[in-house]
Amino acid sequence: MSPEEWTYLVVLLISIPIGFLFKKAGPGLKRWGAAAVGLGLTLFTCGPHTLHSLVTILGTWALIQAQPCSCHALALAWTFSYLLFFRALSLLGLPTPTPFTNAVQLLLTLKLVSLASEVQDLHLAQRKEMASGFSKGPTLGLLPDVPSLMETLSYSYCYVGIMTGPFFRYRTYLDWLEQPFPGAVPSLRPLLRRAWPAPLFGLLFLLSSHLFPLEAVREDAFYARPLPARLFYMIPVFFAFRMRFYVAWIAAECGC
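Structure for Leukocyte receptor cluster member 4, as requested:
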């Protein structure tokens, strides 16, 4: 495994025990503690490239404040335009972001577009309420209010799934912050039930990548082999690729 893969795995594993520390905490500690951990992990893995995520967040928040009735389409255009710019940095002669920055940026794009959609739904519901003489409509799933800048930052940098997922909406994030009786929600047993295949997948990854290393396909000797042999070699290579991602996804789900 490369140093980047080891760092990625350590970040995912650290996220699991931290969740038990936050589980019974109050909404304030949950919000700002989880954001501090996520921002710390982002700074540690991305360094100065963390600025890309900050610019994306600030731009989306400005659009939400300026045009709440149409912020979903605007946020979609803004975040994907910035993602295009982000991917073209090397072509523009600018410093190339780390792979960790790419992971953070992808998940952040999902979260901010979703947040803008939720704010737009809230704004449309409020307009319908005013048009109907302030008669209350169904509010299930709606946000209680438009998030402030600090609330948007705390949601964006929440450590849960910050590099891998799972993705969760801002409404789900609020439900976690304001969760009543968190001690009654089972955690350890579901975690162990979900985590048990990870060591097996990890062992299969190490074994297959050792027997069929990816570096071999970059050597000239590889292309001297017959075509059937080269095609067969792709099977264990992609198998190792899948096992690596399975371990990462399981660890991310356990952290969530």
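The CA atoms of residues 55 and 97 lie 14 Å apart.
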